[in-house]
Amino acid sequence: MSALLPGAPGRRSLIAAGLGSALLAALPRRAEAAAPMTGLRPPEWYRTRLGDFEVTVVGDGDLDLGEPAAGFPAHPRDDLTQLLRANFRSTEKLVLPQNCFVVNTGRQMVLFDTGVGYTRPFGPHTGMLLANLRAAGIMPEQIDAVVCSHGHIDHVWGIIGGDGKPNFPNAQVFISRADFDFWTDEQRASAQGWIGTFVQGARRNLLPVRDRLAFVEDGKEVVPGVIAVSAPGHTVGHTAFMVQSGNAKAMFIGDLAHHEVIMLRRPQIEFAFDTDSKQSAQSRLRVLRMLAQERIGVLSYHFAFPGIGHVAAEGEGFAWYPLPWGVAL
Ligand SMILES: [Zn+2]
What we know:
Elements: H1 11-26, E1 45-50, E2 53-64, H2 68-71, H3 77-86, E3 95-104, E4 109-112, H4 129-135, E5 145-147, H5 153-156, E6 172-176, H6 177-183, H7 193-206, E7 213-216, E8 221-223, E9 226-230, E10 239-245, E11 248-252, H8 262-265, H9 277-293, E12 297-299, E13 308-314, E14 317-322
Parallel strand pairs: 4-5, 5-6, 6-7, 11-12
Antiparallel strand pairs: 1-2, 2-3, 3-4, 8-9, 9-10, 10-11, 12-13, 13-14
This protein binds zinc ion (ZN).
């Protein structure tokens, strides 16, 4: 009976215990699997379908714009802070992703906007379009059309590479005439502050492709399946693009709205980088109402990656419904 009492093990269990610890010593110890943190950013691309078209979103990296209130000087700071807090977003800094889109229509490969390019003016985590394109299995030579929503730094500075040659050697480049004229105006290149810097960069990227550049016009087809939709205000010729395959529709909205919380919940808000903030808000309201009413998909340049989803009218503004993983638009 004594062998069954706790604290008085029998001979058999002693042998078993000895054998057990010998076996354990021979096995690799789990604690030794600890590995250094990689700190690596994953490749930034995602793919879905729109009718017969294939839509690939390719990141160019994040723009850190600093304190959120700095971007919206006319808006009450408290409201901005509360809004960001309620949506679990940083109240310390405003970070805008850059989502470039490649639409394969089956006839053409169309790239919408090109990021900040090789000079990486916003730091090492920007200017990543070409690397992410390759990661997505798309070669720059395959791009037939580069379609630009407007002439700003984060949309046209990726047209020309560090060698002075076009990054997309076989592509025709599209932009509105109003934006081309405004942002390549030599007189404006010497303007103080960011406007001068933007103009110098737009000239570096748009003038070398002048002979392969075509102007988009409101309501006109850019390439089959892509229609230009004028949405001025953020810049004089800011343009969105309706992409349509059969009955499936989605709009590349460019900078119609820069942030899915701030600018959808407060669509009247005025952004510091707008050329005409009031006109920009009017365009935003008009286009967002249409997208919500007609339940048209949204391809957004600056919303959280991958920037694909729908907008719905809600309260005084709009709500953002991201497209679930693996679902077609
Ligand atoms: Zn932008």
